[in-house]
Structure formats: structure tokens, C-alpha cells
């Protein structure tokens, strides 16, 4: 047994989902209008092409590619069939190196005869299943434990080592890959699960190296015992050393694969590239630095042109899409990937995100639409954001792929600057006063004279007889003050500046619901959907300007609800159950369980997982210490005595003596009543939502709890589960 027996087998089985995942990573679809009226973009009877998937109407900025792809899958319809894995046999063997013989055996004897099947379910999920048969561990195949043991058998004359009993080692199992494309009807994230189920458990794809190591060690233990038995005593240590040297080489290969998984999960990287070729070059550098002897071609088109990729992709599409609904080649996808520019890549905690831009094929229509609405068009381009979450690769929930496509629109806006000059008033006053004074003389004669009086204003002449009087009157000249005012005029100048504004539009999807807390036993196998009602999935369109630093200008954000859909009938709790959620170390007994719909976990308005609150405990555990014993029986009897013989109400008496219970009306006393109500009167129906006053905690419950405790303490029942013991007691 060796790395390739698993690695190559799984690689073969995964060919179909790998191709489909590539398609999802690059596929970007048309608007909702395509779903409602295909004639607007894809004519009736035409196949779906990449150009259709990348189309966004001029008046829209967010792609609804998911609905388009969902419609395409729905048009294929529910069907099933076989994946011809034999097509890939030679390609796999050509890459197997020293493990070619083992890879050939794994394919020819353990996988291909069992067939690999696919199914498009009624819900539009894609499921691939297959079986790996139990290998013949005694068969001498190069670079396997059997090869090492056969060499010891020949070297030390121990032929019995060629036929060892490996009946306790179980390696074969069933694998199942589920691609949750049903989620595309309402979201843009596709979950992918991988499960390899064997006799001793179920494993995720990232757990296979560790699983293989475990099996090799089981084989080593059996082989060492056989060597000790069949080889001469004085040669045992030498023989074991030679054998273990070969086994250690196999283990080292598997540990290298295991370290690669861990290293990828822990990787932390942020980088920018002018295009996809830069990302590929960086990836090749990482592969080389980590001792991985693989190099990718320099461009996405060259990768897509590789014979194995073309064969895998074409087989996936043609096998699943027998009606020819999708007409997109691997070359189309490679060419599109190479057209992406301004690539930003980040990787942390098993989550990768790539962001890039590409040309807007509808730019002419966008320009016309923008100008029609009174704006000055500057530019438009499209942005793709792809997120791959593989943080769960070491579990069945392997990961997910999420793709968002949006149009970035750049328009002109006008900014007005007003400049005002303030009035200034200046007054100057000048006063000049001049006064001249003369001496007045008077002469009297017998003759007639004329007296003349002169002022600066008027002149008067007067003639009299006999007397002539001459008078010289003071002449006064005054320059009057003159006020001069200089007044400036208020002047306002307005300048107009044109600034490009980047606007982004995206959708936000979140759920609201009426929820109710519920109580569960740790042996239950499913959560109760009755905890939820009126579950509404809101789709909101958000439009906002983007600031220079790339963040959204919150002051410009406008939200418009596009749809509010009732999805109550579609909700579930995913793979979570009370049994696998319960943890004995959780002394609060309280858990938040994520709610899913169509395969994806719902989000609340803040972007967090939408959850319901549950309390999970051990049946009969009244004092809330995660076990059922005589203490719980005693508290049940005390409560019964106080409420039956003393006439006190159930909300006047505290059932549990746990420190978690503060009052008889505490939620934890209600929880204790749920756990302690182990015996129900024949025909009585008491559900998990029943309150303490609807339950009967009495001597029957105390007696049954004691009976459980006695059976649980009996070593003869060690193989029985708690649920089986309770079933036996209450039968």
C-alpha cells in the first residue's frame, strides 16, 4: 500500500468535479433577464456560450450569473450515468513515476471495475460516487509494503512471508463528491464536500495522507510480527531493519503530502500582479521552493490546452451535459483568464481570494445609457472576485467556491467653488475756512455820494443826497467740507471643476426570521426546524461611491430591496446534529447552530452566520453536571415532594441545585426539567418546547434515572450507548 493507491485513485474520481469547479471559478453569467427571457441574450435553441455568461445589461452593474447557470443546469434536468475513468488511465500512469505499477493496479483492479457514477439530482446538485475495492496486500507490487516483505522472504528463506493474513486491515471504501450547485438558485457560493467512507470511519480529502499512514503502520505491525515468527532468531533484527527502511520511505512520501496540506492551510500571502501570468509564475516559485516537482505552463491558455485538462474538462461537460446546453471549451476559459488584469491575490487560514478586472464588452451600450441619463461617461470595466474556501479540507465539508461579477462605472461629477469679495467703504472729509476782515471808514460831505456794499453773495448800490458814506464790509469766504466715499462692489466668482467619480453597485443577501430557543438530548440525531418561522431571504441592491483609498463612501450609500423571499421550507441545519454538536466540556450547555438553505449557511444583516440558540444535555441530568446519577434522582424526588405534598407551585420550587439556576423561573431550571422528565404517562405527548408547568417530574423519573445509573455503571453494558440503555429501561 502506498501514497498513489489513494492519491491517484482520488485524482481519477475527482476529474469531473475539478473541471466543473474550474468552470464555476471563471464562469460569470448574464442578468436575471436571461432566466426570464432568454431571447434577449441567448436565442431559443442556442447553446450557452462564455460571451453570454459574461454579459451584463448596460443599465445593470451586478451580475446574476448564478441564476443563469442554475437555469442552464435545470434545463439539463435530473439524470445520471457513468464517468468513463478509463479515458484518464494512461495520463495518470504517465505522471505516477516510481509508483506506476501501483497506480495501474489501483485503477485496473480497485476502481475502474466498480465504475464511477454521476448524478444531477432533482435539486440540481452534482454528485459523483465510486468504490475502491479492498486491495490484495500480499501482491508484490513495486514500492509497496508487500514488495518490501517479499524481498525479506527471498533473502531469508521465509516463503510464508508471501502469504500473510491481513484480514484485520480494511482499506477499501466508498467515496462521494457533492457539488452543491442547487445553491445557485439563490446565492453565488457553491459548497463542495468529499467523503471517503471506510470500515473505520469517514475521511475528508485532506485527511487521506494521515489515513494512509495509519494503514501502513497497521500493515507494518503485522509484517514485523510475521518476520519475528518466520525468520531465524539471529537474523530477525537485521531483517526488520531492512524491511523498515523500505516502509519508512513510503511513510516519508505520505508525510510529505500531509505536510503539504498543513502548509497550505497555514500559508499567509498577499500579492498583486499585472495579469494572471504573474500569479502563475509566483505559484511555480512556491512549488519549487517547497520541493514539489511540478511546474505550471506560463499562461492560463497554455494550462487549458494541456491534453489532460482538455480531456478531463470535455469529459465532464459532455458526460453531464448530454443535451449540449453549455458550449464553453477549456480554451475559452483559459483565454478569459488571460484577459484578467490588475490581479490581487490573498491567502490566509485556508481561504484564498482573487480579484481582477477585465474589459467591459458592453461599454458602448453603457456609454449611451449613462449619457442618456444626463451624466458624462468616463469609463467602465468589469471586476471579478473569486473566493475559494478550503479550510475544511480535513473534514467532509471540503470547501466552497464563490464568484461575484460587477461592473465598475466611472462618470463625471461637477464641483462648484464660490469666491466672494467683501465690500469696503472709505470716507475722507476735508474742511477749509477762510475769513478776511476790512476796516470800515465813513466820510460826510455836502455832496451826494454812492455807497457801495459788497459781499461775496450780492452787491447793493444806494444813492443819497448831501451825504456820501462809504462802507467797506467784511468779506468772508468759506470752503465747505466735502465728504468723499469710495465704495467697492461685492463680486462673486464661481469656478467649475470636473472630478471623475467611481461608483460601485453590489448586492447584499441576508436572512431574518422568528426564532425560538429549544432543548435537546445529546443522543438526538437532528435539530428541530420548528425553532424557525417566517424565514425571509432579503436581496438588497447597494450603490455607493468609492473613495480614493478604495473604501466605500458611506455618506453616498443607497440601499434598495430587490427581493424578499420566504424560504422557511428550505432551511436546514446542514450536517449539524445535537449528537455531533454536544461537547461534554461545555458547562453552559448553550450552543449557536448555523442555519442553512439550499446548501449554504445563511447570513444575518451584519454578515455573520445566522444562528439559533439550543441547549443540549444528558438525559436525566437534573443537577446539570453532564451525567445522570443518584444525585439527579434525589433532586427529582425533592421537587416532587415539595410540589405534591406541600402544595407549592412548580414556579415556586427550584428543581435543579445547579449554580446555573438562579430562580425557579430560570431558563436553566426549565432545561433541567426537560432533561429530568424521562418518564411520560402512556399516551402523553410532551415536546421539547413544553414549559416546566406542563411537565410531571415525579418518583417515576427518579426511579428511571437510578435504573439508568445502575446499568451505566455495570461493565457488562460498556458496549451499549446511552440511548440504547434508556430505550431498554423505558421499554
Automatic annotation (TrEMBL):
Q: Which UniProt keywords apply?
A: Coiled coil, Signal
User: Which positions carry the signal peptide feature in this UniProt record?
Assistant: 1-29
All copies of the Cellulose-binding protein CttA N-terminal domain together span: 516-599
Q: Which stretches does the entry tag as region Disordered? A: 414-498
Could you tell me which InterPro entries the record lists for this protein? CttA_N, CttA_X, Dockerin_dom_sf, Mucin_signaling_protection
Pfam families, per database record: CttA_N
Q: Which residues form a coiled coil?
A: 222-260
Question: What processes does the entry annotate via GO biological process terms?
Answer: polysaccharide catabolic process
PANTHER family xrefs = MUCIN (PTHR24041), MUCIN-3A (PTHR24041:SF30)
Q: What is this protein called?
A: Cellulose-binding protein CttA N-terminal domain-containing protein
Amino acid at each position: 500500500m502506498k501514497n498513489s493507491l489513494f492519491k491517484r485513485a482520488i485524482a481519477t474520481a475527482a476529474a469531473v468535479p475539478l473541471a466543473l469547479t474550474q468552470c464555476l471559478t471563471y464562469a460569470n453569467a448574464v442578468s436575471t433577464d436571461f432566466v426570464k427571457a432568454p431571447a434577449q441574450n441567448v436565442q431559443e435553441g442556442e447553446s450557452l456560450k462564455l460571451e453570454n455568461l459574461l454579459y451584463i445589461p448596460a443599465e445593470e452593474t451586478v451580475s446574476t450569473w448564478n441564476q443563469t447557470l442554475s437555469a442552464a443546469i435545470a434545463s439539463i434536468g435530473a439524470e445520471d450515468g457513468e464517468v468513463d475513468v478509463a479515458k484518464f488511465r494512461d495520463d495518470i500512469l504517465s505522471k505516477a513515476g516510481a509508483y506506476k505499477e501501483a497506480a495501474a493496479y489501483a485503477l485496473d483492479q480497485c476502481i475502474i471495475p466498480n465504475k464511477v457514477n454521476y448524478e444531477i439530482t432533482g435539486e440540481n446538485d452534482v454528485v459523483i460516487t465510486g468504490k475502491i475495492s479492498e486491495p490484495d496486500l500480499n501482491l508484490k507490487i513495486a514500492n509497496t509494503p508487500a514488495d518490501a516483505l517479499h524481498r525479506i522472504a527471498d533473502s531469508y528463506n521465509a516463503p510464508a512471508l508471501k502469504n500473510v493474513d491481513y484480514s484485520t486491515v480494511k482499506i477499501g471504501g466508498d467515496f462521494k463528491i457533492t457539488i452543491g450547485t442547487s445553491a445557485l438558485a439563490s446565492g453565488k457560493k457553491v459548497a463542495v464536500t468529499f467523503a471517503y467512507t471506510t470500515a473505520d470511519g469517514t475521511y475528508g480529502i485532506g485527511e487521506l495522507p494521515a489515513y494512509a499512514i495509519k494503514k501502513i503502520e497497521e500493515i507494518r505491525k503485522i509484517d514485523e510480527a510475521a518476520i519475528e515468527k518466520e525468520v531465524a532468531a539471529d537474523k530477525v533484527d537485521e531483517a526488520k531493519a531492512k524491511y523498515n527502511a523500505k516502509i519508512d520511505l513510503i511513510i516519508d512520501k505520505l508525510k510529505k503530502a500531509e505536510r503539504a496540506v498543513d502548509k497550505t492551510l497555514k500559508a499567509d500571502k498577499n500579492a498583486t500582479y499585472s495579469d494572471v501570468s504573474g500569479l502563475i509564475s509566483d505559484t511555480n516559485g512556491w512549488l519549487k521552493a517547497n520541493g514539489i516537482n511540478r511546474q505550471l505552463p506560463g499562461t492560463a491558455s497554455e494550462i487549458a490546452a494541456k491534453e489532460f485538462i482538455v480531456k478531463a474538462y470535455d469529459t465532464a461537460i459532455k458526460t453531464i451535459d448530454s443535451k449540449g446546453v453549455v458550449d464553453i471549451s477549456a480554451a475559452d476559459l483559459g483565454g478569459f483568464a488571460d484577459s484578467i488584469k490588475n490581479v490581487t491575490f490573498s491567502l490566509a487560514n485556508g481561504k484564498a481570494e482573487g480579484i481582477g478586472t477585465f474589459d467591459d464588452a458592453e461599454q458602448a451600450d453603457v456609454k449611451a445609457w449613462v449619457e442618456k441619463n444626463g451624466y458624462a461617461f468616463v469609463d467602465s470595466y468589469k471586476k471579478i472576485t473569486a473566493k475559494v474556501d478550503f479550510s475544511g479540507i480535513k473534514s467532509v465539508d471540503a470547501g466552497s467556491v464563490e464568484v461575484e461579477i460587477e461592473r465598475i462605472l466611472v462618470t463625471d461629477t461637477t464641483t462648484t467653488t464660490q469666491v466672494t469679495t467683501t465690500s469696503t467703504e472709505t470716507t475722507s472729509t476735508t474742511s477749509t475756512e477762510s475769513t478776511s476782515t476790512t476796516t470800515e471808514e465813513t466820510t460826510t460831505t455836502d455832496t451826494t455820494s454812492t455807497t457801495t456794499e459788497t459781499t461775496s453773495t450780492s452787491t447793493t448800490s444806494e444813492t443819497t443826497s448831501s451825504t456820501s458814506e462809504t462802507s467797506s464790509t467784511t468779506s468772508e469766504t468759506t470752503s465747505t467740507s466735502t465728504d468723499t466715499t469710495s465704495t467697492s462692489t461685492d463680486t462673486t466668482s464661481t469656478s467649475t471643476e470636473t472630478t471623475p467619480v467611481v461608483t460601485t453597485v453590489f448586492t447584499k443577501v441576508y436572512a431574518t426570521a422568528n426564532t425560538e430557543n429549544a432543548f435537546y438530548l445529546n443522543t438526538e440525531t437532528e435539530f428541530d426546524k420548528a425553532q424557525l418561522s417566517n424565514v425571509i431571504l432579503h436581496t438588497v441592491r447597494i450603490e455607493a461611491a468609492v473613495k480614493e483609498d478604495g473604501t466605500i463612501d458611506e455618506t453616498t450609500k443607497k440601499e434598495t430591496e430587490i427581493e424578499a423571499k420566504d424560504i422557511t421550507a428550505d432551511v436546514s441545519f446542514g450536517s449539524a446534529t445535537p449528537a455531533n454538536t454536544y461537547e461534554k466540556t461545555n458547562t453552559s450547555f448553550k450552543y449557536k447552530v448555523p442555519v442553512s438553505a439550499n446548501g449554504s449557511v445563511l447570513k444575518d444583516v451584519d454578515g455573520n452566520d445566522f444562528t439559533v440558540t439550543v441547549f443540549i444535555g444528558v438525559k436525566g441530568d437534573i443537577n446539570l453536571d453532564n451525567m445522570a446519577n443518584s444525585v439527579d434522582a434525589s433532586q427529582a424526588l425533592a421537587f416532587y415532594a415539595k410540589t405534591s405534598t406541600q402544595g407549592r407551585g412548580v414556579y415556586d420550587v427550584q428543581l435543579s441545585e445547579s449554580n446555573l439556576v438562579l430562580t425557579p423561573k430560570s431558563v436553566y431550571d426549565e432545561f433541567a426539567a426537560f432533561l429530568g422528565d424521562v418518564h411520560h404517562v402512556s399516551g402523553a405527548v410532551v415536546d421539547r418546547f413544553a414549559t416546566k408547568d406542563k411537565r410531571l417530574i415525579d418518583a417515576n423519573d427518579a426511579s428511571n434515572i437510578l435504573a439508568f445509573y445502575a446499568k451505566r455503571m455495570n461493565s457488562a453494558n460498556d458496549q451499549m450507548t446511552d440511548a440504547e440503555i434508556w430505550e431498554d429501561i423505558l421499554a
